[in-house]
Amino acid sequence: MSLSEDSERLEGDLKGKKVCESRTAMTELVLPNDANTHGNVLGGKVMHLMDLAAAIAAFRHCRNPVVTVSVDSVRFLHPVKVGAVMMFEAVITRAFGTSMEIQVEVRSEDLITGEQMRTCSAYLTFVAIDEQGKPTSVPPILPETQEEKQRFEGALLRREHRLRLSSGEE
Ligand SMILES: CC(C)(COP(=O)(O)OP(=O)(O)OC[C@H]1O[C@@H](n2cnc3c(N)ncnc32)[C@H](O)[C@@H]1OP(=O)(O)O)[C@@H](O)C(=O)NCCC(=O)NCCS
Predict the structure, then answer these.
(1) How far is CA 65 from the centre of its chain?
(2) Staple partner for 122: which of 2, 45, 74, 148, CB 3.0–4.6 Å?
């Protein structure tokens, strides 16, 4: 089966939805309770919020409960201090049969200077589940902008890579 035949099969017969319909933005102030002993936000706190933002985007896309099935690598590019603000933006890149790949971008802002920095980004995959906890079909996406089309194209290769990794082939 070719890649395009495979993706047509995976995307099924459900009516497509636009990326903007599920785009999710969250803003969070870093409080002392979220920090390590150096006064920087804990990586686990950032990952928790990434998971939440991505889950909301996935839920909005399929209008069905979802679970996280995998998170690709996350690299923290700089420390974020207590008192800074973190912004999370989650967008769906592509939907397959029952799974959806979501990209989350995180930026931080120094509230005094207004300086913003890119903190990290990651791809997370969610699966829609039915009442029995079994995977259920999700609608495909209709990429509109050039950026959305690029993310859509890249998603197929990323999916193949992560499925190979998780099956122990790589
Ligand atoms: C996610 C879950 C419902 C999948 O159930 P399953 O019976 O293993 O389902 P399948 O093997 O048919 O896979 C379902 C989808 O997940 C995808 N998937 C499986 N492993 C994956 C991985 N490592 N990365 C990305 N997608 C993956 C499959 O490709 C399939 O998607 P598709 O229909 O779009 O092709 C089940 O494993 C589960 O409930 N896991 C726990 C989820 C959870 O609780 N997460 C919170 C943290 S514990």
Answers:
(1) 15
(2) 74
Q: Best of 9, 64, 69, 134 to mutate for ligand 1, by most ligand atoms within 8 A of CB?
A: 69
pLDDT in tens, 9-25: 566 667 899 999 999 99
Nearest to 45, CA basis, from 34, 36, 60: 34
99 close to ligand 1 (CB < 6 Angstrom): yes
**pLDDT single digits (tens) 130-139:** 999 999 999 9
pLDDT at residue 8, as a whole number: 56
Domains (ranges, CATH) in the chain? 3-166 (3.10.129.10)
Distance 149 CA to ligand 1 centre (A): 25
What average pLDDT does this structure show over 30-55? Answer: 97
pTM, entire model: 0.94
Using a 6 Å cutoff on CB, does residue 68 contact ligand 1?
yes
pLDDT at 1: 37
Tell me if 137 CB under 6 Å of ligand 1.
no
Rounded CA-CA distance 31/39 in Å is 9
Residue 100 vs residues 22, 107, 120: alpha-carbon distances, Å? 12, 23, 20
Contact 97 CB / ligand 1 (< 6 Å): yes
